[in-house]
Amino acid sequence: MKILSDKTPVVVNITNYVAMNFNANALLAVGASPIMSFYDKEMDDLLAIANSLVINIGCLDDNEIRGMHAAAAAANKYGKPWVLDPVGVGASKVRTETAVELITKYHPAIVRCNASEIMVLHGTACQTRGVDSAEPVEAARSCAREFAAEHGTVVAVSGAVDYITDGKREAECSKGSPMMAKVTTMGCCASAVCAAFAAVMPPFEAAVHAMDAMGTAGQNAAARSEGTGSLAMHFIDELYRLP
To answer: Which stretches of 159-199 are assigned E, i.e. beta strand?
Structure first.
C-alpha cells in the first residue's frame, strides 16, 4: 500500500510461533518492514530504531513475558505506538494477568481483540472458548467503548462486522469473508497490520485503515479461493495488491 510503502515503517513483533511467518509476510506485503524477536535484552535497541510495536500473547512463557514488558517500556520511552493482541484472555489466569498488567503499566495505542477478549478485559461476564470468541461483536460494543475511554486507547474488535472505537468516535468494517475465521492467525495478522498503520497515522485512523485493508484483502481472496488453504495464499497477494 502506497501510504505504507512510501515510508516502509519498521514494526517490531513479539508474536506467537503460529503467527510469526504469516504476520511477517503480511507486513512485507503492505509495505512495512518486520522485525521478529522475543529477547528482552535487545528491545531497547530495537524500539530505538523501529516505528511501532505489536505484542501478541498467544504463546506465553516467562522469557516472552519479560520481552513484552521490556518492549512496551521501550516503546513508551521512545514515543513509539504499540498494539496489544490479548489472545485468549479469560482462558487462563496468566493470560489475563499479563494482558491487564501490560495495559495498565504501558498503555497501548490500540487493543485489537475479539468480542470475548474485550469483555473479559472490561470485567464483563462472558463465555470464552480459548482463543476463539464465544460472543458476537454486537455484545461487546459498549464494553469496547467504555474500555477505550477509561484507558485512553483505541479498541478494534474483529468479527463478522469489525467495530473500532476510541470511546468517542466509532467505525465499522463489514468487509471480509466467513472463510477468514477458518485460517489461523488472521486475527494476529490484523494486529500486526494495525501496528504498521499506527506507525504513520493516529491510532483511531490506523485501526480503521487496518481493519478495512484486512477485510478488503480477505473478501477479494475468498472470491479467488477454493478453500481455506488457497485463501491464505491469495490473502497475502491481495494485501500486496491494495492501492
So the answer is: 162-165, 170-173
- Report the C-alpha gap between 184 and 105 in whole angstroms: 30
Residue 238 lies in a domain: no
10 strand-pairing partners: 33
Count CB atoms within 10 A of the CB of residue 237. 13
Residues contacting residue 189 through CB under 8 Å, at least 6 positions apart = 19, 22, 23, 26, 214
Residue 228 CB-half CA count within 13 A: 9
* pLDDT band, residue 126 (cuts 50/70/90): low
Number of domains in the chain: 1
Higher pLDDT, 124 or 8: 8
What is the domain-level CATH number for residue 16? 3.40.1190.20
Residue 17 located in a structural domain: yes
User: Mind listing the pLDDT tens digit for each residue in 168-226?
Assistant: 999 999 999 999 999 999 999 999 999 999 999 999 999 999 999 999 999 999 999 99
Sign of CA dihedral 112, 234, 13, 19: positive
pTM of the model as a whole: 0.95
